[in-house]
Amino acid sequence: MADSEGKSTGAPKGYWAITYADMVTLLLTFFVLTLIIVNEAQSNIYRVVDVLLNETKAEIEDYLKGANLGNLIKVTRDTKGIKLLMSSSIVFNINEAEIKDEFKPILRDLGRIIGRSKLMNLDRYEELKRFIRALRQEGIELQVEIRVEGHTDNLPIRSGKYRNNWELSTSRALNVVDFLIKNTSIPERFFSALGYGEFRPIADNSTAEGRAQNRRVEIYIDADLVKM
Could you tell me which residues come within 8 angstroms of residue 68 by beta carbon, excluding any fewer than 6 positions away? Predict the structure, then answer.
């Protein structure tokens, strides 16, 4: 622009504020749309994963029922997935961490059911791929984990090669993981092993019945969205 003498007066004051406001509006719109997409992706993934977890649980229950093991191995749904609870007495001899020969076929069957489940093969589902890609762009990953936990009662170990309940419970969990890796097609990256010794009881350690309940192995099949 120029005044009556032909001198340039420049752009009217305040034009920069209008441009800045437009930019802020566009950025806000972008962030809102991104949030909507991420929320939609999370909702859809949780919905599909919940269905797949229920299917896997039903397959495990059918196997246990057919093998008359329903009273020995309990299967439940928890917050993030599936929990298998079994007494240590059916898996190990007292104060030992080697899996009993008679239990190995059962553990192998359970591992193979988990390994071939839809839950462990999520990349095959076109419906999920789009949502998974959207979440990865935001640094969010769908993580599937098979976690094995060993637990004992509070009685001290008096014989055997393990110094305490920590060592015994940890060795038992590791041996279960090692067996599943060697006898299924599930990659090692999906597994973790933890030993809690006597410190996470589910029953009263002052009674024989309570101690028997506390001597246990738990296998968790978890699926959850995590920030990477």
Answer: none
